[in-house]
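Thread: quick sanity check before group meeting

JM: Hey all, I'm pulling together slides for Thursday and realized we never actually wrote out the predicted structure for the chain we discussed last week. Dropping the sequence here so it's in one place. If anyone has concerns about the input, flag it before I start.
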Amino acid sequence: MSRIPIKLRVTLVFAAVMALVLAAAGLFLYLRLESSLTHSIDTELQSRSQQLIREMRVNDRGIREAAGTLIDKRADDFAQVLTSSGRLFDPSHQRGQHPALTAARVTSATQAQITFERPTRGGVPERYLARPFAFEGRSLIAVVGASLQSRNDALDSLLTLLLIGGPIALLLASLAAYWTVGSALRPVDAMRRHASEVSASGSQQRLPVPEAQDELRRLGVTLNAMLDRLHNALQRERAFVDDASHELRTPLAAHKAELELALRYGGTSEELRASIASAIEEADRLTQLAESLLVIARSDKGELALQLEPVAIPDVFDTLRDRLGGRAEREGRSLVFADGSPGAVEADRMRLEQALGNLVENALRYGGGTVRVWSQRADGRMEIHVSDEGPGFPSDFLPHAFERFRRADVARSGDGTGLGLAIVKAIAQAHGGGAGARNTGGGGADVWIDLAPAP
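JM (edit): ok, ran it. Output follows.
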């Protein structure tokens, strides 16, 4: 069944249900007509039996002329009077007749009115009504009957109409259902054709959306939103590859140039050492760039390995002070850690130190004045801030601060790769947290990450 096209599958289900409905409706109509016709016949038999009894009692003596007239009517309107023993009453007026009741029915008819059917010798069924009545101090039975030929003819005509009209109605309804389902699925087929034309080349082509406010429209809107996300992701991936290629090309070119200079003009050992030192510096930059790209790539795939444990914030501050305090002194800057910062976070200590180290290095490289590192609780989370007293971020840069290869001032970027804040955000998100940036009211920038506090 699952291999059948959905349009045909729905039509078959509809046809099966429609067939059951038509069969049930036809059966109900047939039985209702049969009951109605039988009731009409019983009403007529009841009236005739009352008339026969009334005519029998006119003079209270035998079967008189009027009653005899009723008994001698045509064969399809049968009338008969029997004794309580089942014999013909006054046989002289009922010549050529045989008792219509069997012994069992005579017994029942002497007690209450009964109705029954039986076929005649010609095979035509008849319906009979027998009822007891008192006559000349005796208990008699009035029996009347009528042919069911007209009733059966009407039922046969109805059955013929149902057997002919039912399949025709079923066929027309199934064709209408097939056409309706096809019309309903036509927008889906249009979406499929357009989807097959959407390529991975970044095409802005989108799926057609039906005008009706229904499920298909919502499906089209959802798929177009998905295509938009895929297009944006593809654009970001291309931009990432382009920027990564550019960032790799610069240190590689510098590395090659240093080696070529050392090969051509490195006449003395001092010149060779200077060239080698410069080449090692460029190699370190390449290593750092490769590590940064690897962190971002693993974070995008959700594969950034973390060893979560409770990490005391003051211990992390001590490590950063040891690692970056000397650099701040050489640059004549103050690096202040809030040693009284409370609490601990659930984090991978190495990745947390990497993220906070990037923030402090950015503040030292691009900010000004004193760099402060502190933490606070906010909305059940732990925020760790790094702020400075420099010019802050350009207002148009803040919404893009954590994007890859973004720099606030390209001219003053120095040896930066534009990946520092992107790595900070990737590490925070890998911990189930986030990152934010703002300009403080008194000047300077404030960048932070928020993590879950340790239990």
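AS: nice. The radius of gyration is 51 Å. The chain has three domains: 6-153, 215-300, 309-451.
JM: adding both to the slides.
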